[in-house]
Amino acid sequence: xxxxxxxxxxxxxxxxxxxxxxxxxxxxxxxxxxxxxxxxxxxxxxxxxxxxxxxxxxxxxxxxxxxxxxxxxxxxxxxxxxxxxxxxxxxxxxxxxxxxxxxxxxxxxxxxxxxxxxxxxxxxxxxxxxxxxxxxxxxxxxxxxxxxxxxxxxxxxxxxxxxxxxxxxxxxxxxxxxxxxxxxxxxxxxxxxxxxxxxxxxxxxxxxxxxxxxxxxxxxxxxxxxxxxxxxxxxxxxxxxxxxxxxxxxxxxxxxxxxxxxxxxxxxxxxxxxxxxxxxxxxxxxxxxxxxxxxxxxxxxx
Amino acid sequence: xxxxxxxxxxxxxxxxxxxxxxxxxxxxxxxxxxxxxxxxxxxxxxxxxxxxxxxxxxxxxxxxxxxxxxxxxxxxxxxxxxxxxxxxxxxxxxxxxxxxxxxxxxxxxxxxxxxxxxxxxxxxxxxxxxxxxxxxxxxxxxxxxxxxxxxxxxxxxxxxxxxxxxxxxxxxxxxxxxxxxxxxxxxxxxxxxxxxxxxxxxxxxxxxxxxxxxxxxxxxxxxxxxxxxxxxxxxxxxxxxxxxxxxxxxxxxxxxxxxxxxxxxxxxxxxxxxxxxxxxxxxxxxxxxxxxxxxxxxxxxx
Amino acid sequence: xxxxxxxxxxxxxxxxxxxxxxxxxxxxxxxxxxxxxxxxxxxxxxxxxxxxxxxxxxxxxxxxxxxxxxxxxxxxxxxxxxxxxxxxxxxxxxxxxxxxxxxxxxxxxxxxxxxxxxxxxxxxxxxxxxxxxxxxxxxxxxxxxxxxxxxxxxxxxxxxxxxxxxxxxxxxxxxxxxxxxxxxxxxxxxxxxxxxxxxxxxxxxxxxxxxxxxxxxxxxxxxxxxxxxxxxxxxxxxxxxxxxxxxxxxxxxxxxxxxxxxxxxxxxxxxxxxxxxxxxxxxxxxxxxxxxxxxxxxxxxx
Amino acid sequence: xxxxxxxxxxxxxxxxxxxxxxxxxxxxxxxxxxxxxxxxxxxxxxxxxxxxxxxxxxxxxxxxxxxxxxxxxxxxxxxxxxxxxxxxxxxxxxxxxxxxxxxxxxxxxxxxxxxxxxxxxxxxxxxxxxxxxxxxxxxxxxxxxxxxxxxxxxxxxxxxxxxxxxxxxxxxxxxxxxxxxxxxxxxxxxxxxxxxxxxxxxxxxxxxxxxxxxxxxxxxxxxxxxxxxxxxxxxxxxxxxxxxxxxxxxxxxxxxxxxxxxxxxxxxxxxxxxxxxxxxxxxxxxxxxxxxxxxxxxxxxx
Lengths: 302, 302, 302, 302
Fold this sequence. Notes:
homotetramer, about 300 residues, alpha/beta, 2,3-Dihydroxybiphenyl 1,2-Dioxygenase, domain 1, 6 helices, about 20% helix
């Protein structure tokens, strides 16, 4: 019970058309809804209404991220826990938000607006529920099957971690410690994957990237081919992370929000023993092949 | 809370040495314990004491399968639920069983002895918990990172399914229906994978196979190379399942227990809508490329 | 100098429309020409006019196979050698055959009509010759980059082999010997690949299959997905050959001609030492994973 | 007839032991010979005595590169052509050089000592010639099956190209032109691969890198894992080349000679139409994903 996975990320973009063109033609998501100032997208294997929402705003940024809970009761239960921890919770009622029912919103210690939602409109994946084939035809671009995780920045990583773990029930798969043994990066999961949410040192409220799942290393190459052909700026990769063991490419959407495609990694159950990285290994921890971080990766977030 | 994953499968073999040679040299598991009539094995990325136990017996068969629960309390809670459902539960106390603490055992409607365990001796994976590399060196044979699932046979699949779902909390990802709409195969999960446990029509108490996870399709080819080189009889594959979408090879250990290597598939969360296969698609459901089942696959179990 | 590669295979089909639909939509070749009773196809990365021609005939069969020579002079030179060996050579003049210039045709000791051609109309690949991307967009079906080789049957394999080697300059990469040490299968190359032409025991004039190149094992899986989705009957595979080491799938076009997709294998230069397989290893030689041949593979040819 | 492939590259290293440890333990070549100041290595699937020779010298550099010719007569024929072009040819007689018979050596317009050799001692690959398995066991490190090509630098690329093509018979698969249409990079082949030898602008006599063949993109990832684990500095990659379409990693041996692992690319026959890249696409031409060259790649050679 409790949180089951990342539901959607809501970002702001200064050009809805350009962002829509990119997320549908290059990333290969499907547009599932649109209002005056917002567009909604899902991946082909996702059942829910959307996993990405973009809103027009002159500034590139993040409005909020939303996680889905398993049961109706989880909302009330978690609302109580959040308030007991000292944060005000705001209810968003059914009908107020596109594609979903009742939800709660609150600010986290990392300075982000977070949402928890139980009921999301089912629009269905691109495959039938009876005798399906393994994947659909007619996909465009990279076409990841689903959104995977996001990484945000926080001034006080340990404090944010405590909240995500103690109040929301996230489990710590990996952590990066500075020379004094303080957490400067944490990787947290609820869905038996290496991470659903990660937090690294940086300004409060920042979005470092959100990531799409790919099925294997060959899909990573294909993604790189498509990005290069479409003149999308690749930040780093294809490479491997030391943390999570996953294979990855970082790149930027045309408005400047960092995206990732990600695959691989282990499968951590709730009894998974936390892996620790020390600061002298930070290069390999993040980019196992390069063994060092680039400036852009460290400094740029939205 | 509740069951988090398959813990171990306990089978019987008429030749401990031959089976041990196969599971260590060809499959590439690690021997982690041994008694007069039993040998215990784990995969390299598993932390717990064993995921496979073999016991000497003149007949090839299955003693039991064991699932791990998240919390100490889960044992008592599930014990109550099982007894309320009408099955007697037997306690195995700490110290009675190799490599694990308190557990409960009971017969299921599919005629299997099942075990639930919370505390298992940690022997650790082959990687350190500080600054690990992505995988260890010196592995032998196929060397899967972990055990994945098992498939058992039952005379009354719907009845077994009800028990596994209502009492033990498994979720139904896929089902195969006969012409009358009755379940003749079900795929059940607790760990956000396409299946941790599957049940198909057959005699009560039978084991169709247990499966090891591989990381991708190239590992499947490598496994086939190793099996062929070691003259291990391949039953079917490399091929793809319609059900689970996974890639697979079926083959037999030298004593006749069917093994599988498996990779791929989707990632079902608890809100995953069940997929249904109809009997006229059974060939593609099981072996998507062949489109038909072989006799051996249908008839042979242990 | 001399033969540089397989140019095209000319087969007969009892249904031009059905065959065309299959070779364009499922196999993903491009139609490059058409006459009253013939259709011509090429793969996307091939420059020449066609690598496959189909002709209407009530019977499924092979008209001829054609190899390309490097220089104009090679035609005359090889014509002399063939006639000296005792076979009559027939000249086909420029303008007589679609998409190509002067060629010579002759019957081989394996009972096939073979053609050698130097000048072939260039229609170009799907990629530009200036600043190309790695592969084109908009491909359909399997879309192999090129035709790779063909395998024919002959009553007297050693005699056919002598002709192909001594007269036409093929080099022997692998051979399969029966218990008396006689060749029952040979693999021959001119283009630094494991085989451009292979001959196995069977009736004179038979076509066992022709094969398309795929770039890797993941493309083999994708091909199997497409074949299965299109209900194309798979004969064997995905599997690996012992001979050539290549990965493969055999299957039949809708009229009954066997096709193969093939990848991998070593890169033999002219100094490559021949590999020999003995009859007791014939199963592994042909299908390394299965270790045995199926009846259909042995008996069916066109 | 003529040149069939790269035979070996002879480099100098200031530390024979360190270089030997790297080329055997990390690269996974086999040591096949040793003299006072030289060590010889081959890859596991190569039949000839060596494809790499290292000689002790305080300076890192290249002594020569050697190509193999198909027939004994080729040596005399090419000797005449080279002398007619105006270069002096030096004969190295059987017994003078380790592991090979008669050869000729000469300086090329790119300022390199080049060797042509026909007879090379056969030490055999690691696989038997009768009923082999697809690859051997017990390999160490990256273990490429063979050496693939080398890239050298020349002050006057067009002049060097003319020599390699007109005198030695290389064919031009791709070329990179500056704004004035002059060649600043050429890719040349003799073995139906995208390149056996490449030349780019730079000082005469320089070695940019030599490259090992890998079988696919998954082997590229495995190579990167091994390099990273062994703390070998990766220059660029894993990435894709625009030129050749191949997948690649560049890195340095511990003494500073650049190595590459390479896979993929098309299969050019002698009738392959040359591909041209213009200088404004140089970034994509070399590193398709990054779209730009790094300083190190441009400046560092040995």
